[in-house]
C-alpha cells in the first residue's frame, strides 16, 4: 500500500462511462472475481475514498480486461521526485 501526496484532499468520484451490455457483463464478472479474492472491497456511500471509473478493454483474442481511468487522480498528484531514467540517456552515460 502506498500514499499519493497531494496539496489538498479532493474526493474523487466519477460516474461510470456508458458501456454496451457485453462490456457491462464483462465488468461485472471482473469485479466479482476481484471481490472474491479480496483484491477490492465494497465501499459505503459515506466512506471518504477515491473511486475511479473502470472500463473494459478488449484484447485481439476476444478476451477482455478491466482497467482504471486514473486521469482525474493524476491531475492532483505531484511530479515524481525520482523518475526512472530514459534508457537512451542511461546507455549514453555508461558507454
What does this structure look like?
With 95 residues, the chain is an alpha+beta fold. It has one domain. A two-stranded antiparallel ribbon has the order 1-2. The chain is extended, with a radius of gyration of 18 Å. The mean pLDDT is 80.
Q: Major sheet: order of its strands?
A: 1-2
**DSSP strand (E) fraction?**
5-15%
Integer average pLDDT: 80
- H and E order: HEEHH
Low-confidence stretches: none
Descriptive labels:
single chain, 3 helices, 95 residues, two-stranded antiparallel sheet
Brief synopsis:
InterPro entries: DNA/RNA_pol_sf. The chain has 95 residues and is an alpha+beta fold.
SSE topology sketch:
Elements: H1 21-37, E1 53-58, E2 64-69, H2 71-74, H3 87-94
Antiparallel strand pairs: 1-2
Amino acid at each position: 500500500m502506498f500514499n499519493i501526496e497531494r496539496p489538498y484532499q479532493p474526493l474523487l468520484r466519477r460516474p461510470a462511462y456508458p458501456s454496451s451490455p457485453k462490456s457491462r457483463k464483462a465488468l461485472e464478472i471482473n469485479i466479482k472475481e476481484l471481490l472474491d479474492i479480496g483484491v477490492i472491497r465494497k465501499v459505503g456511500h459515506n466512506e471518504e475514498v477515491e473511486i475511479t471509473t473502470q472500463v473494459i478493454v478488449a484484447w485481439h483474442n476476444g478476451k477482455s480486461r478491466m482497467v482504471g481511468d486514473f486521469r482525474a487522480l493524476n491531475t492532483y498528484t505531484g511530479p515524481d521526485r525520482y523518475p526512472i531514467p530514459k534508457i537512451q540517456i542511461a546507455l549514453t552515460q555508461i558507454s
